[in-house]
Amino acid sequence: MKAVVVNPPNAGVEVRDVPSEPPSQGKVLIRTRLNGLCGTDRGIVSGKLTFSRPPLGYNYLILGHETLGEVVEGNGRLRKGDLVVPVVRRGCGSCLNCNLGRQDFCETGNFTEIGIRGAHGTMREEFLDEERYLVKVPNSLGELGVLLEPLSNVVKALNEVEYVQRRMWWRCGDSTYSCMTAAVLGSGPIGLLFSLALKTMGFNVIVANRRPPSEVESEIVEGIDAKFVNTSEKVDIRPDLLVDTSGHPSAFIPVLPKMKKNGALILFGTTGNESYGMTAEDVTTLVENNILIVGSVNASKSDFEAGVNFLLNWKAKYSNLLEKLITKRVKVEEAPDVLTRKLPGEIKTVIEWK
Amino acid sequence: MKAVVVNPPNAGVEVRDVPSEPPSQGKVLIRTRLNGLCGTDRGIVSGKLTFSRPPLGYNYLILGHETLGEVVEGNGRLRKGDLVVPVVRRGCGSCLNCNLGRQDFCETGNFTEIGIRGAHGTMREEFLDEERYLVKVPNSLGELGVLLEPLSNVVKALNEVEYVQRRMWWRCGDSTYSCMTAAVLGSGPIGLLFSLALKTMGFNVIVANRRPPSEVESEIVEGIDAKFVNTSEKVDIRPDLLVDTSGHPSAFIPVLPKMKKNGALILFGTTGNESYGMTAEDVTTLVENNILIVGSVNASKSDFEAGVNFLLNWKAKYSNLLEKLITKRVKVEEAPDVLTRKLPGEIKTVIEWK
Amino acid sequence: MKAVVVNPPNAGVEVRDVPSEPPSQGKVLIRTRLNGLCGTDRGIVSGKLTFSRPPLGYNYLILGHETLGEVVEGNGRLRKGDLVVPVVRRGCGSCLNCNLGRQDFCETGNFTEIGIRGAHGTMREEFLDEERYLVKVPNSLGELGVLLEPLSNVVKALNEVEYVQRRMWWRCGDSTYSCMTAAVLGSGPIGLLFSLALKTMGFNVIVANRRPPSEVESEIVEGIDAKFVNTSEKVDIRPDLLVDTSGHPSAFIPVLPKMKKNGALILFGTTGNESYGMTAEDVTTLVENNILIVGSVNASKSDFEAGVNFLLNWKAKYSNLLEKLITKRVKVEEAPDVLTRKLPGEIKTVIEWK
Amino acid sequence: MKAVVVNPPNAGVEVRDVPSEPPSQGKVLIRTRLNGLCGTDRGIVSGKLTFSRPPLGYNYLILGHETLGEVVEGNGRLRKGDLVVPVVRRGCGSCLNCNLGRQDFCETGNFTEIGIRGAHGTMREEFLDEERYLVKVPNSLGELGVLLEPLSNVVKALNEVEYVQRRMWWRCGDSTYSCMTAAVLGSGPIGLLFSLALKTMGFNVIVANRRPPSEVESEIVEGIDAKFVNTSEKVDIRPDLLVDTSGHPSAFIPVLPKMKKNGALILFGTTGNESYGMTAEDVTTLVENNILIVGSVNASKSDFEAGVNFLLNWKAKYSNLLEKLITKRVKVEEAPDVLTRKLPGEIKTVIEWK
Binding positions for substrate (chains A, B, C, D) (predicted)? Predict the structure, then answer.
C-alpha cells in the first residue's frame, strides 16, 4: 500500500509502496481518512529532529502521528465505521507512570511514538493497532477529529496548570476565571487550540504574534471573542497565564516581569533556535511573585478523551468556525511538497485519503 | 406583573400580580423564558421544606430557582437578547468560602437562595439581577439552558469526586475511566444528568431505580449507551462510583458491601423519609476498602460555566436526545396544578413564559 | 527459636519453637526487640478475625505486626545496630496502586500482611526481611519505635483528610487549624495517637469515650493540652473533624448532626458489633453541609517515615509523656496470657525480647 | 528603648533610642530575646533593596524580621514566659489570598513586612503585636526558635513542590522519596535549612557551592548524611529536585539539562546580579521532560507552625547539630558592624538581647 516514508535521521521524504502488516490477533484494522501535518513532521523530513528513528528492524519510518481513521473490522468496543484517533506515545513498559497510562510522564525515555520514533506512523492507506491505543470519536464530529491529536497535548498542559494552581486561590471572587487573562504566544494551530480551550475555561484570551494576523486568524480569534495583538508593535500584556507555543526564550522571557502575581507560564513550544538572557531581576520576579513555569509534552489517553469533549463543545458553540483551522487539503501524492515548506496562510494542512 | 407566589412555611401556591422591582443601577433586567420545576419547589408548596422563607420585609416569596432568561437591557458584558441563567445561592458576605465565590461551601448558613429562602425567585415575567450572578448561555443552546441550574449541582458533585479521588490512583491502566462503573440510584432529572455527565467522563454507567424504566427513560439511557437496572429485581451492581439521588439510606447502604475498593459514594438526594440500619460490617467495609462518601449541595458559578460546556457537548453528540428530558411544558396559569403533584412519566416539567 | 504461634482461623495461641528461616540473598537479618499488641492480634487469637490465615505451605502463623527490631547484619543502607520497623502489608504485585508502593490501596485484595494473613509475623526472636520493607528508626527514638506501626495508620488517615479537604478552603483565616476542633471517639492507643497528631497539626482536640478517663489517659490528654469528654454524660461536641476509632455506628452517627459545615469524618475502627439507624435526616445533614466521610486502612512506607517524624517531634516536645502510652511490658512467655484478655488500664502492652 | 534603626531607601544603620509604643488593647507585649540577621537586612542597610520603606508617618524604620521573643504579659492563649515568633508579612486586607491568611500569595502587593517595608521590625528591646501574628514556640526548643522565620519560607516552598508534583506519580516504587535526589544550590542558612528539611522528607540530599565547604558546613552536611559538592570542580549532579538559593541564573540554568524527567526546580534566591543565556535547547529540555519551576516567597502562619515541627524533629534527631547553624552571637551595639559585612565562616549571626 501507499505510504509517506522517511529515513531519519537523514533528510528526505517519498511516497512509496510499503508491505501491509500481517493481521494480528486482537488488533483493529483501520483505514486512514485524514492525516494532519505539523512541525514535527517537517522537522523529521528536514533531518533536524535527531531523535527520530525507524522501528527496530526497519531502515525506514512511515511518517504520521496526527490521524483520523475509520474502523474496517470491529471488535469488542469498536464497530465497523467508527471513527478513531490513535494515541501517539506508547509506554516504556517499565516505569511507574507508563504503567498508569501516563506515558506522557515516562521516566525512562524508552517509549516509542508512532510516526516519530521507533514505531510506524499513520500516513498510509491503513494500519493495525491495539484497541487500548485507540480513542473513539463521535461520528457527529466528522473530520474535525483530525484535530484531536494536537488538541490532546493542549488539554494535558491545561490540566497541569489547573491542578498545580490549586496551590493557592487562583480564581476570581466569583470562583470563575472571568477576571483573568491568558496570553498565548504564537498563532499556529497549537496557539489557536490553546486559545479556544482557554476561552472555554472562561479566561479572557489574547493571541500574540510578531506580525499582524492573517485573515483566517482574525476570523477565528474574533469568532471566539479573543483578541489578537501584534507584539512587533508596542503592546502591554499583563497575563495571569502565559502560554508559549513558540519555543523562543526571546518571546516569553520579556513578558515575565509583566505577569500577574501567582501566575503561571506553560512552556509548550520547542522549535526556537536562539539564546536569550535571563537576568537576576527576572529570577527575582519569579520568586517574589510565586510564579510557576511548567514544561508540558504529549498527552495521556484521558487527555484525548477530554479533547473530544472540547471539539464537540466548539462544534455546537462556534458552528463552522472550527473547520477554518484546516486551511488546506492535499492528496497523498502532494505530501512531499507540503512536508518540505510551510504554506502561506497555513494553519493546519491535512492529507486526504480516498 | 404575574408571578408564582408562595407563603412559606405555610403550604399553598398562587399565580398573582406582584409589583415590579424599581430599576437599580448596575442591575440587569431579564425577561423570564422558562422555569424548571423540581422537588424543592414542590416541597415549598407543600409546606414541608421548613427552611423556606420570604425575603426580609415581605410576607410572600416568589418561587423559582431553575431559570432561563433573556437580557432585556444590556450592560458591559451582557447584551440585549443574551440568554442567561442566574445562580441560586448568594453568599453570606462574611465567611471565607463565600468570599471566594464558593457560597456552596458557606460556613455560616447565612446565605440566601432565590426562590427558596430569603430572596425572590424567577417565576415571574421579569426580574433584575446583578451581572455577577448571571451565567451567559450560548444562543446555540436555546431552551436547553433551563437544564443548567440542576446540572450545575451535578457538576459540583463530580468535581468534588474527581478532586478527592486523586488521593490515590483511581483510573484504569490507560489513564481513563473506561474500566470503571458508576451506578446512579434514581432516574429523575438529577439522576439522568449525573448519568450523562459520568458517561462523558468515560465511565460505564448504570442507572438504577426500584421499578422498570419509563419509555423516555429507556430512550435516554439507551441513547447514551448506559444501562438501566430495576433494583426491585435481583441485580448485581459492583460500582466504583455510586451516586445516590434518592436520599434513602435504604437505597445506598445495601450497596456499600458491593462497592469496589477505593470507591466513592456521592450523597446528593435529601428527600427520603426513613431510617435504615448501618451495621458494624458496613463500617468495616468502608474502612477496609478506603471508601469515601461525600455529601454535595449546590454549586459555584464556575460549576454553572462547566455545565454550559456539558450541555453544548451533549447537544453536539446526542442531537435531540436532550430535549426529551423536558417532558412537559405548561403555561404559568397551570403552575399551581403541576406544583402540587408529580406528573406521570415526568422528567422535567417547565413553565413557558410568552 | 521461640515464637508466638496461632492457627487461624482456629482460636488459640502458644509460645513454641519454630525453625529459623534459611539466610536469603539480599534479605536483612533482624533481631526482635519489642512487639506491640493490638486488637487485631487478640482478634486472631480469639478466632474471630476470619480473614487471618497462615502463609502458603504452613499450617500455623507466627503472630506479630507491631515491631521494633535491630539489624543483626547490615547491607547497603542498613547497618548493624540500626533500629528498624517492618511495614505490615506487602502488595499483590499486580494492581496499579501496589506497584506504586501504595499497597494500602490494593485493588485486588491479594496482598499479604505479616502476622495477620498469609505471611509470618515478628513475634519471634529474629526474622529476615527485604530492605525495601524496612523503615529505619533513629536511635534517639529508642523503644518508642514500637509505636510506629500503629501510628503509620493514623498518619495515612490524616494525610487522606488533608488532601481531600483541599476541595474547598478548610482552614482558619490565618491559614492554620487553630479555630478548628477535632474530636476523637475512643481513647485507646489509636485514639491517643490520633489526638497527638491532630494537636501537632494545630487542631483543638477532644478525646471522647463512654466513660471517665483512666489516670494515664488523663495525664496524656492533659499533657498535650487536649480535653477528655465522657460521652455517657451530656456533652456538646461540635467538631470540624471527627475520628471514629471505635467501629460503632452508634458512636459516630449521633454526632453527624452536630458536625460543622464542610467537615470530615474518618472511619478507622472496625471492631464494633452492632447496627444503628441512619435516618434520612442524617443523610440530609451530610448533603446540605458538604460533609465527607473517609474509611482508612493500613499505611504506605511513606506514612511510616512521616510517623518517625511525629515521634521525634513528640519526644522533643512532650519529653517522657510518650513512654506512658506503653502501660505494660511482658516477657514472651506471658504473651498467651496478655493476648487473651484486655488488661485493666491498658493503653499499649508490649512484649520485650532479651 | 534601644533599637536598630535604618532610613530606607538611604543606606546606613545605627543603634539609638526610639520611643516605646503605647500599650494597645488586645496586643501582646513581647520582649525580644534574639534577632537573626539575613541578606535582606544587609540589603536594606546598604541601600540596595529599594522596596524597603519606613512605616507611614515615620522617617525611620526599625530593622528586624527574624525574631525570637518572650511574652511579657499574657492574654488568652499566650502566657507570660511563652516563646513566640512573629510572622513577617501582614496582608493587604483586600485580596482573596490575604483574607485566607495566605498573605504570602498577596495579589495586590499592598502588604507590609515588619522590619522590611512599611512596618517596624523587632530589633528593639520589646514590641507589641497582635496575637494572630504570633506563633508559639515550645519552650523545649529554646533559642533554636530564632531559626523559625527563615525556616518558614523553606517550608512554604517545599509544600508548594509537594502539592504541585502530585500532578503525576513523583515518588519511588515504595511510595517514598528514597530513590530521589534533591540538590540545593547554596550553603547559606537557607540552603542548609532546605537540606535538613529535604533529608527529613526522605530525599538524598546534595548541597552545592562554588567553593569547598567551611568546617561548620562540613559538620552539618555530614551530620545529616547529605553530601557537599564543589561545583567549581567537575561534578555530575542529576537531581529530581533542584533548589536554587543563590539567585544566580548562571547557577541553575546549566543544571536544567541534567535534571531528571518530571523534576522540579524551586527558585528561592533573589540576590544574584547578572544575566545568563537561556537557550532554546534549555526550553526544549523543560518541555520534553515536563519540568516544573516554581518561584516561592514568604510563608503563611501554617508554614511557621510546620517549621516548629521540623525544629523539634531535628532537635530530637540531631541533638546539638542545629546549634551549629548559629555561628556568632553579638550584642546589639555590635549590630551596625555585623550588618555591614558578611562574617567569615558565617551561617547565621544573631543579636542577643539581655
Answer: 40, 113, 149, 153, 298
Give me the residue from B99, B300, B313 closest to A313, CB to CB: B313
Q: Is the predicted pLDDT of residue B226 greater than 70, yes or no?
A: yes
- Whether the per-residue pLDDT at C294 is higher than 90: the answer is yes
Each residue's pLDDT tens digit, C180-217: 999 999 999 999 999 999 999 999 999 999 999 999 99
Residues of D in contact with B100 (CB under 8 A): 96, 100
Asked if residues C121 and C66 have their Cβ atoms less than 8 Å apart, the reply is no
Contacts of B165 in chain A (CB under 8 A): none
Q: What is the pLDDT of residue D74?
A: 79
Mutation target for D interface from B100, B162, B300: give the one with most D CBs within 10 A: B100
For residue range C141-189, list pLDDT tens digits in order.
Answer: 999 999 999 999 999 999 999 999 999 999 999 999 999 999 999 999 9
Which residues in D lie closer than 8 A to residue B166 (C-beta atoms)? 166
- Per the annotation, does B190 bind a ligand? yes
Say whether A277 and D276 touch across the interface (CB within 8 A): yes
Check whether D116 has a pLDDT greater than 90: yes
Looking up cell 520589646 gives: D126
Q: CA geometry: angle at B275 spanning B270 and B278, to 5°?
A: 105
Closest residue by Cα to residue D305 from D109, D101, D123, D110? D101
Find the residue in A nearest to B177 (Cα).
A302
Q: Which residues have a Cβ under 8 Å from the Cβ of A80 and sit 6 or more positions away?
A: A71, A72, A73, A74
Classify domain C169-289 at the CATH superfamily level: NAD(P)-binding Rossmann-like Domain (3.40.50.720)
Closest residue, chain A, to D109 (C-alpha): A261
Distance CA D19, CA D33 (A): 19
Compare all CA atoms of chain B with the CA of A171 and give the residue at the minimum distance. B100
At the top level of CATH, the class of C2-148+325-352 is: alpha beta
| Phi-psi sector, C196: left (phi>0), alpha (psi -120 to 50), beta | alpha
Instruction: DSSP for D102-134, please give it.
Output: -GGG-SSS--EEETTBEE--S-BSEEEEEGGGE
Evaluate whether A144 touches A312 at the Cβ level (below 8 Å): no
Q: Could you tell me which CATH number the domain at D2-148+323-352 has?
A: 3.90.180.10
D159–chain A nearest CA distance, Å: 9
**For all residues of chain A together, what is the average pLDDT?**
96
CATH of the domain spanning B2-148+321-352: 3.90.180.10
**Domain boundaries of chain B, sorted by first residue:** 2-148+321-352, 169-289
Q: Is-contact B289 B259, C-beta < 8 A?
A: yes
Domain made up of A2-149+325-352: CATH architecture = Alpha-Beta Complex (3.90)
List of long-range contacts for C88-97, beta carbons under 8 Å, 24+ apart: C88/C113, C88/C114, C88/C115, C88/C116, C88/C149, C88/C298, C88/C299, C89/C113, C89/C298, C90/C114, C90/C119, C90/C133, C96/A99, C96/A100, C96/B169, C96/B173, C97/B168, C97/B169, C97/B262
Q: Which of A94, A302, A315 to mutate to test the interface with B (most CBs of B within 10 A)?
A: A302
Say which of D163, D270, D277 has its CB closest to residue A287: D270
pLDDT digits (tens, 9 = 90+) for A32-75: 999 999 999 999 999 999 899 999 999 999 999 999 999 998 77
Indicate if ipTM > 0.95: yes
Residue C322 has pLDDT above 80, yes or no: yes
Name the minimum distance, in Å, from the CA of C85 to any CA of chain D: 15
Cβ of residue C164 closer than 8 Å to a chain A Cβ: no
Q: What angle do CA D289, D291, D295 make, to 5 degrees?
A: 170
Chains that touch D (3 or more CB pairs under 8 A): A, B, C
Q: Neighbours of A (≥3 Cβ pairs closer than 8 A)? A: B, C, D
